[in-house]
Each structure stands twice: as C-alpha cells, then as structure tokens.
C-alpha cells in the first residue's frame, strides 16, 4: 500500500520543473510582446534623446519578472501559513515551501532593482551605463517617488529572502507573508492611478487589485504544486483555498471595475486601446474564475483517490 501511495506522486514530480520553466517562458514572451506592441522597442525619433534598446527591452521584462516573482513568493508563503494545516512549529513540507519562497523573493529583489535602474534610464533618456552608478541611483531613490517605491519593494523582497531560510515557526512565517503583501503596494502609490482624477479611489482600488491577484494566482499555483506532489494534507489545502479564492476573485473584479471607471468614460471602452485591454482582461478573468478552480478541485479529488483517501476519507465533497 505504501508503494502505491507514493508512485503517482513520483510520476508527477518530473513534470513540475517543466511547468515552472514553461510559466517563466510565457512571462518572458508576454513581456517581449508588450514591449513590441506598446512601442517599447521602436526606433528612436530623430531629435529626441533615447535611452537605448537595452532599456526599451529590459524595462518591460524586468517589470514582468518583478510581478511574477512577487506572485510566486506570496503563493508559497500563503501555502505555508494558511493552506497547509500545522501547529506553532512548521513541518517539513512547510519548511520546504518556505525555502521556495526565499528563492522567489531573491529573484523578486533582483528584478525590482533592475526595474529601478531601467526606470531611471527611461525617465532621463540616458543609456543604462550612464545612470548605473551608486550616486545617481541613490539620488533617484531619495528624490523621486518611483525610485523610493521600487527601493521599498526591493528591501521587502530582500528581507524575505534573508530571513525565510531561518524561520521555523508559524508566527514568523505569517510576518513574512505580511511583509510580502506590503512589498506589493509602493508602486501602486506612484503609478498612473496616483495621477488619476479621483486619486484616493484609484490608488486604493489598484492596491486591492494587486493583493487580490497575488493571493488568487499565487495561492492557486502552489495549490496545484501541492496536489501534484501528493502532499499529505492537499485536500485540506484545497478546501481552505476555495473561500479565499472566491473573495480574492471578487476583490480583483470589483477593484478592476473601480479603477477602470476612474480612468475611462463609457465610450472609451470600445474606442481606446486601454478600454479594449480592460474588456479583454474582464473576459479572461471571467473565464479563469469559472474554469481554473474546477480543474484544481478535480486534480485534488483524483489525488486523494490515488492516495487511498488518506487525507479526505471517502467524502466526495471534501475538496470543495
């Protein structure tokens, strides 16, 4: 019986590196497509100074990596703190995912620093080599809101990457999750929403949007990882994630509507590029919200049956 329990998990494990590698490749492809379609890689206009092709391509890629690594960090910490049952001391599985969170936070820190440098290069229309010096970067961090925002995000990620490796209790893991969620927020106070007409509504809705997306996508990602690895309490994790995902999805949808309403008039939804992007995002969110959770629950049920029902017994709805 023990051999049968671990065999399905052993078959699933080799697929995980492929899935994660493919996800990284998709993020990179999306960033390059955004750079191309958004004009990030267009030729320089005569008479107007240009930051160079390194910045034109590097800035969207760095931003995408920053967002993706933040989501992975929060997802791993969410699995440790909320989804996997445990006591005051973290178990072996929780400690393993905490290490994953530390690695993702390290990438988050590096990509946030790169985003800061590329943003500085883009704002001053100077190649990276001319602005990449301690004095210039420090002055940008001290005097500019965008510089401070990315610096705070990088500091939060560095804190998580450093201390997660030494955490052994649930209390400190919860603190790391709070720091990760806080690290998402500084750019929200310095982006386009901060300059919108209704400043407070735009900024608050964007902040809620970022947190909701990170919790929903990150939690779902590591929920699927836990199911694929045949973690002992995977069924409990899915059952705990279901209400959390529902509230996160509602928060993402509501905050997205508020943020779009602040920026757009009704006619702009079909007459502007940003409006069309909002409609595409809304349709994508609706499709994901209706299909992806069902896939996760189905996988959890099959996993529980393959493991002999040791996590959920014989109750058919234990994963819901």
Tags for this entry?
single chain, 320 residues, mainly alpha, 2 domains, 12 helices, globular, disordered N terminus
What is the H/E string?
A: HHHHHHHHHHHH
Which structural class do you get from the secondary structure elements? Answer: mainly alpha
Give the mean pLDDT. 75
Between the first and last Cα atoms, what is the distance in angstroms?
26 Å
**Share of helical residues:** over 70%
Please provide the count of β strands. 0
Indicate the radius of gyration in whole angstroms. 21 Å
Notes on the protein architecture:
- This protein is mostly helical.
- The chain contains twelve helices and no strands.
Précis, in short:
With 320 residues, this protein is mainly α. Helices cover 76% and strands 0% of the residues. The chain has helices spanning 2-12, 15-37, 53-83, 92-124, 128-131, 134-143, 145-163, 170-184, 199-228, 234-263, 268-271, 273-306.
Write the layout of secondary structure elements.
Layout: H1 2-12, H2 15-37, H3 53-83, H4 92-124, H5 128-131, H6 134-143, H7 145-163, H8 170-184, H9 199-228, H10 234-263, H11 268-271, H12 273-306
């Amino acid at each position: 019986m023990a051999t049968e329990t671990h065999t399905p998990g052993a078959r699933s494990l080799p697929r995980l590196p492929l899935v994660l590698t493919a996800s990284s490749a998709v993020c990179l492809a999306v960033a390059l497509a955004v750079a191309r379609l958004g004009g990030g890689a267009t030729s320089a206009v005569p008479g107007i100074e240009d930051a160079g092709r390194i910045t034109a391509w590097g800035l969207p890629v760095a931003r995408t990596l920053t967002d993706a690594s933040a989501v992975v960090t929060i997802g791993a910490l969410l699995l440790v703190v909320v989804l996997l049952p445990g006591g005051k001391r973290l178990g072996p599985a929780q400690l393993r995912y905490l290490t994953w969170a530390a690695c993702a936070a390290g990438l988050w820190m590096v990509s946030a620093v790169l985003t800061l440098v590329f943003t500085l290069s883009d704002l001053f229309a100077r190649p990276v080599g001319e602005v990449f010096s301690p004095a210039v970067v420090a002055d940008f961090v001290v005097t500019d809101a965008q510089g401070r925002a990315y610096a705070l995000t990088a500091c939060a990620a560095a804190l998580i990457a450093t201390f997660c490796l030494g955490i052994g209790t649930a209390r400190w893991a919860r603190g790391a999750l709070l720091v990760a969620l806080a690290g998402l927020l500084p750019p929200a106070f310095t982006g386009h929403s901060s300059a919108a007409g209704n400043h407070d509504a735009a900024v608050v809705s964007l902040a809620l949007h970022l947190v909701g997306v990170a919790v929903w996508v990150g939690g779902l990602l590591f929920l699927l990882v836990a199911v694929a690895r045949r973690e002992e309490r995977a069924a409990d994790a899915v059952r705990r994630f279901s209400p959390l995902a529902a509230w996160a999805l509602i928060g993402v949808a509501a905050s997205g509507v508020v943020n779009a309403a602040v920026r757009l008039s009704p006619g702009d939804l079909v007459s502007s590029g940003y409006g069309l992007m909002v409609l595409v995002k809304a349709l994508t969110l609706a499709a994901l919200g209706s299909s992806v959770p069902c896939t996760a629950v189905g996988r959890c049920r099959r996993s529980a049956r393959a493991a002999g029902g040791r996590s959920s017994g014989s109750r058919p709805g234990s994963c819901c």
